[in-house]
């Protein structure tokens, strides 16, 4: 084996502790309570039932973790029970126990807790007992087989059984193996190593008899072929157990198409199941480390670049209904079930591994954003001894709600692990053992670095402020260390680092290195400037998320349509967004203080809170920037922000890229934009003057200096502006502005904004506004409108747009002088949900269900279904339901690309008639 070690390595979990006041403690403490209280017997119940041994009267966790069909037995690979006995809802059972074992091992190592360590051993012993009982039956292909269901699922996968007939058997296998391997590596359980090695030998013989093409086709199957991180665990196991053959088995899970696409930079992700493939990337990094084959690492980096940032929402989540959308599409992929938490769990692992190998700060920038705003946010602010209380989806559509609880689901499983290891990436060290420390996250934490005989303590106001003190506490009088301190990418300007007389400056998104002999009691002060900011979506700059330093702030509002706020009128040159109490320059930078004290900020009257609080109230992660009045840094002008035919306003022109960087550049830009707006008929002469006076008076640079702005007296020469010695801004305007013949200004407005998809899902009603911006007396304007190919007609009031599809609306207004102003707007209209039907094929004691939907306008986005014992799932292929002794109800609906979701329809499955009945 070739061994390519990462440049950096993490510390053992127990050597790093979160500090008091850390916002992560809420979730950690709640999850530790669950870890200590939840009975191991409940987790083992499905395994023991499958092996035919005493379940100790324990009930399984529930949901996906149920006992399955009452007549199901411990079927071997050739003992397919038939569709009538394969209960889809529970075909993943056992995965949750694997996650729980990982959580227990992580918690035991992190807390150095002997009670948790004993619980790990109890669970491992139980799994070992089940493995031995299954082997004793002689029904399985290898004595290493361990599962809570029969081996037949693996055999059916080899014959390309679809999801519904089977459910990702290797995914469950991975979770069990990963839990056992964690128990060995983190807690030292030798019994866990024995069990997982036996499982590895079973996997090796199972896949070793298949040809390459068959295996590739298996892994390409939607969900049925999902195998989690089997390649990761087997690669790790090959090292830990010293069994090189397991590396060969790990490589059987390589997906050639995905690796080649990553290496070649070919985007193949659209429509793929995100979390089916993300765990593979973790495995490829491990395979790179062992084989030295660079293509593995290049593939992961290439695929990462296709996901981040182009397919990532503001909080770090990705995907809609678990699937990736088109590249460089965020706003255009907002649906109603965005951001599966499992996917972010794995993206964090990938980011961490890539940073360890490359030291590229962009991976840590993603890690910080997603760990705080998605993963911490995914834990409800509640205590429970039975439920992980974590989110499955953490959607980003208007008025969204996180899908909390999730006992027994995939995200319930990864959620168990997420919250007992929040400290694992705060510090890294050089892998060669040198005295170098990487400080990645400026959060309250303490490191005990035994090899260097030193403690490192971070006291931080994170995430409320950008101020941190770092203390180095050596056992001796001094210690020679190099600290690499990360300056977060969210910093609103250069950071200042001070220790003694030494002062360093660090740019956002970089690491600053300090090498010195650190004496006991020395303090490094780190000051990272942090202001309120609004960031546009990659494919729709006007759809924005609000950030305060590392935190995403969400608007709390019960509406379920996109909220509109005048964000451009609230910004300063450096991007600082002024909240309602931060208009005075002295308080604008103290938004974090107000947020911590009050729990929220008000922006244009709307309440914003950190997304990571664990609240289950409705939220808006994105709002649309739309001004009705021209304003600069919250300085109003009283001038309407009229819209051009292309939808742009004067403010859009002022804040167009490249952005003005200084006050002089800003005033220059305002002058250009205001004059252009006057020429285009957006401003009267009087309004033009009010805009210029308002811009000159605005505290646009946050200096706090009060200025008076005015228009030069008649006869002053020149065109432009000047700053007088008095501090006044004096504007001079070109001649002829009063006489310039201007056409009427025409706008088309709708009664409501489109859905997040960009489509109007209710009939839009358009209002035409025409304004004669010429000076003097005005005769009435002649206003006309037409829709689509209709002839022009007089406008006499609001016009409903009844047509479906992309509809062009045109309007024109003619003045008495014969000048005509014109505008047009294209509206995408789809007000009807897709038509959907269920086709049922009876199979004796079960039925096969196919769902079909059609939508002729925007197209079908997805079909979803659910029934007793199942979650609300995305339909991909026909699925089978076993008939029981009572009626069952299957609900289903379809959603189109516009966002119209049909009313849930009901399919009632009949009760199975008793044997022998007439």
Explained architecture:
The chain is an alpha+beta fold. It is built from 21 helices and 38 strands. The strands form 9 sheets. The protein has a 7-stranded antiparallel β-sheet with strand order 2-5-6-7-12-9-10, with no helix packed on it. Strands 13, 14, 15, 16, 17, 18 and 19 form a 7-stranded mixed β-sheet that branches. Strand 23 and strand 24 form a beta hairpin.
Entry keywords:
918 residues, alpha+beta, seven-stranded antiparallel sheet, seven-stranded mixed sheet, 21 helices
Task: Put the structure in a nutshell.
With 918 residues, the protein is α+β, with helices and mostly antiparallel strands. The chain is 29% helix and 23% strand. The model has no long low-confidence stretch (mean pLDDT 92).
How much helicity do the residues have? 25-40%
Largest sheet: 7 strands, antiparallel
What's the N-to-C terminus distance?
68 Å
> Globular, elongated, flat, extended or rod-shaped: what is the shape?
globular
Largest beta sheet: strand ordering = 2-5-6-7-12-9-10
Oligomer: single chain
> What Rg do the Cα atoms give?
31 Å
Class by helix and strand content? alpha+beta
How many β-strands, per DSSP? 38
Q: How confident is the prediction overall: mean pLDDT?
A: 92
Strand content: 15-25%
How many separate helices? Answer: 21
> Runs with pLDDT <50, length 5+?
none
């Amino acid at each position: 084996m070739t061994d390519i070690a990462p440049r950096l390595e993490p510390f053992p979990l127990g050597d790093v502790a979160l500090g008091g006041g850390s916002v992560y403690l809420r979730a950690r403490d709640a999850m530790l309570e669950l870890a200590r209280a939840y009975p191991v017997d409940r987790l083992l119940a499905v395994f023991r039932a499958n092996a035919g041994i005493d379940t100790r009267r324990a009930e399984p966790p529930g949901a996906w973790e149920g006992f399955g069909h009452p007549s199901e037995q411990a079927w071997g690979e050739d003992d397919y029970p038939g569709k009538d006995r394969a209960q889809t809802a529970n075909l993943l059972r056992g995965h949750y126990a694997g996650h729980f074992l990982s959580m227990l091992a992580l918690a035991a190592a992190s807390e150095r807790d002997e009670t948790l360590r004993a619980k790990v051993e109890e669970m491992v012993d139980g799994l070992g007992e089940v493995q031995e009982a299954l082997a004793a039956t002689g029904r399985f292909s290898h004595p290493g087989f361990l599962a809570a269901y029969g081996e037949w699922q693996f055999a059916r996968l080899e014959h390309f059984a679809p999801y519904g007939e089977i459910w990702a058997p290797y995914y469950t296998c991975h979770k069990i193996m990963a839990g056992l391997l964690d128990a060995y590596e983190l807690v030292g359980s030798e019994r866990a190593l024995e069990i997982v090695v036996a499982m590895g030998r079973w996997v090796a013989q199972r896949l070793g008899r298949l040809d390459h093409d068959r295996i590739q086709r298996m892994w390409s199957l939607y969900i049925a072929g999902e195998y989690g991180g089997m390649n990761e665990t087997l690669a790790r196991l090959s090292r830990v157990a010293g069994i090189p053959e397991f590396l060969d088995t790990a490589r059987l899970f390589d997906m050639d198409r995905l690796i080649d696409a990553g290496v070649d930079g070919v985007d193949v992700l659209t429509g793929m199941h995100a979390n089916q493939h993300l765990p593979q990337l973790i495995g490829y990094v491990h395979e790179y480390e062992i084989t030295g084959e660079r293509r593995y690492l290049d593939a992961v980096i290439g695929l990462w670049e296709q996901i981040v940032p182009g397919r990532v929402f503001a909080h770090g989540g990705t995907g809609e209904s678990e699937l990736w959308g088109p590249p460089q599409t965020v706003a255009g992929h907002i649906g109603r079930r965005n951001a599966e938490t499992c996917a972010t769990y794995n993206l964090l692992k990938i980011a961490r591994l890539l940073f360890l190998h490359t030291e590229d700060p962009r991976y840590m920038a993603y890690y910080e954003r997603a760990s705080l705003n998605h993963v911490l946010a995914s834990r409800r602010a509640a205590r429970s001894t039975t439920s992980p209380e974590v989110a499955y989806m953490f959607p980003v559509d208007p008025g969204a709600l996180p899908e909390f609880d999730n006992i027994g689901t995939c995200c319930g499983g990864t959620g168990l692990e997420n919250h007992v290891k929040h400290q694992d990436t705060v510090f890294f060290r050089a892998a060669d053992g040198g005295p170098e420390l990487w400080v990645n996250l400026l959060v309250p934490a303490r490191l005990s670095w035994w090899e260097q005989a030193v403690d490192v303590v971070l006291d931080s106001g994170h995430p409320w402020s950008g101020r941190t003190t770092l203390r180095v506490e050596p056992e001796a009088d001094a210690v020679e260390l190099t600290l690499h301190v990360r300056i977060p990418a969210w910093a609103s300007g250069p950071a200042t680092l001070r220790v003694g007389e030494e002062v360093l400056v660090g740019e956002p998104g970089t690491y600053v290195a300090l090498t010195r002999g650190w004496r006991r009691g020395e303090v490094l002060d780190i000051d990272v400037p942090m202001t309120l900011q609004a960031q546009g979506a990659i494919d729709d700059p006007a759809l924005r998320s609000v950030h305060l330093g590392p935190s995403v702030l969400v608007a709390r509002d019960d509406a379920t349509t996109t909220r509109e706020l005048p964000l451009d009128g609230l910004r300063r040159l450096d991007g600082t967004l002024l909240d309602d109490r931060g208009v005075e320059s002295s308080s604008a930078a103290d938004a974090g203080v107000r947020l911590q004290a009050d729990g929220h900020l008000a922006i244009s009257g709307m309440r914003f809170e950190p997304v990571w609080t664990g609240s289950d109230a409705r939220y808006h992660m994105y709002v649309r920037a739309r001004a009705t009045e021209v304003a600069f840094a919250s300085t109003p002008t009283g001038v309407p922000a009229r819209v051009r035919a292309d939808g742009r306003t004067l403010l859009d022109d002022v804040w167009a890229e490249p952005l003005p960087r200084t006050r002089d550049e800003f005033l220059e830009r305002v002058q250009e934009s205001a004059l252009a707006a006057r020429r285009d008929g957006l401003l009267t002469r009087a309004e033009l003057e009010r805009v210029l006076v308002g811009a000159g008076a605005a505290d646009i640079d946050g200096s706090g200096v009060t200025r008076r702005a005015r228009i030069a007296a008649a006869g002053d020469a020149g065109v432009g502006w000047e700053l007088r010695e008095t501090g006044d801004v004096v504007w001079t305007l070109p001649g002829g502005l009063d006489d310039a013949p201007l056409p009427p200004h025409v706008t088309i407005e709708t009664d409501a904004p489109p859905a997040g998809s960009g489509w109007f899902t209710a009939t839009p009603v358009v209002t035409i506004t025409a304004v004669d911006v010429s000076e003097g007396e005005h005769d009435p304007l002649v206003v006309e409108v037409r829709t689509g190919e209709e002839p022009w007609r007089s406008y006499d009031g609001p016009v409903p747009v009844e047509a479906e599809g992309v509809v062009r609306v045109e309007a024109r207004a003619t003045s008495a002088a014969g000048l005509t102003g014109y505008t047009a707007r294209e509206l995408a209209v789809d007000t009807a949900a897709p038509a959907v039907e269920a086709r049922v094929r009876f199979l004796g004691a079960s039925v096969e269900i196919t769902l079909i939907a059609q939508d002729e306008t925007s197209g079908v986005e997805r079909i979803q279904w659910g029934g007793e014992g199942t979650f609300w799932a995305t339909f991909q292929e026909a699925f089978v339901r076993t008939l029981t002794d009572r009626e069952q109800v299957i609900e289903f609906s379809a959603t189109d690309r516009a966002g119209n979701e049909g009313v849930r329809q009901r399919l009632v499955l009949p009760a199975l008639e008793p044997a022998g009945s007439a």
